[in-house]
């Protein structure tokens, strides 16, 4: 951690506007800032595929994508936790998608008081149409990396995710139904 912190700090030698001996955070070297910025840009680049053509916003796509990769229905809470999107944002997206007929509520067999969400036929068709386009767009975004660099990036992201105890595979997510 010290190496990262050292890289993200500038001393008076690098910036004469700071008082002597004071350091400041260089956001452009601060990993959390960089990851957040990259996530926002990549998300916006992918959004073009589903926003312009299908009128879906980012939260709606996150709901569709989460339901699309699962083998069974799940709760809105699961989607919120899986995508790290605030529950009220997911709730609004769910309401819109229900209204548009892209998802539906199904009774939870284990707890009849709870409803789960799943794709409708038209929701599944939209997901099946969109995900190859998004994979192509991902390839375009990552085209600046060699195949080996892509593997390294994936492995490094996996290590950071693991250090934060984030679920990393669909199988792991399915096994932890409540996430």
From TrEMBL:
The keyword Chaperone appears for this protein: no
Transmembrane annotation, as ranges: none
Domain HTH marR-type: 32-162
PANTHER family (UniProt xref): MARR-FAMILY TRANSCRIPTIONAL REGULATOR (PTHR33164:SF57), TRANSCRIPTIONAL REGULATOR, MARR FAMILY (PTHR33164)
UniProt-listed Gene3D superfamilies: Winged helix-like DNA-binding domain superfamily/Winged helix DNA-binding domain (1.10.10.10)
Alphabetized GO MF terms: DNA binding; DNA-binding transcription factor activity
Organism annotation: Bradyrhizobium centrolobii
InterPro entries, alphabetized: HTH_MarR-typ, MarR/SlyA-like, Tscrpt_reg_MarR-type_CS, WH-like_DNA-bd_sf, WH_DNA-bd_sf
Any one GO biological process: response to stress
Protein name as catalogued: MarR family transcriptional regulator
Keywords carried by this UniProt record: DNA-binding, Transcription, Transcription regulation
């Amino acid at each position: 951690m010290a190496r990262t912190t050292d890289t993200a700090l500038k001393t008076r030698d690098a910036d004469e506007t700071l008082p002597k001996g004071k350091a400041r955070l260089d956001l452009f070297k601060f990993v959390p800032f960089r990851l957040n910025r990259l996530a926002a840009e990549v998300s916006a680049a992918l959004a073009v595929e589903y926003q312009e053509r299908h009128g879906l916003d980012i939260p709606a796509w996150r709901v569709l994508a989460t339901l699309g990769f699962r083998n069974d229905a799940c709760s809105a809470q699961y989607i919120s936790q899986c995508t790290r999107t605030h529950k009220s944002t997911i709730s609004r997206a769910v309401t819109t998608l229900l209204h548009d007929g892209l998802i539906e509520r199904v009774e939870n067999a284990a707890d009849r008081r709870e409803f789960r969400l799943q794709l409708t036929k038209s929701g599944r068709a939209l997901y099946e149409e969109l995900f190859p386009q998004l994979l192509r767009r991902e390839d375009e975004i990552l085209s600046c990396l060699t195949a080996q660099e892509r593997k390294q990036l994936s492995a490094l992201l996996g290590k950071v995710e693991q250090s934060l105890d984030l679920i990393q595979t669909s199988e792991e997510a399915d096994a932890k139904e409540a996430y």
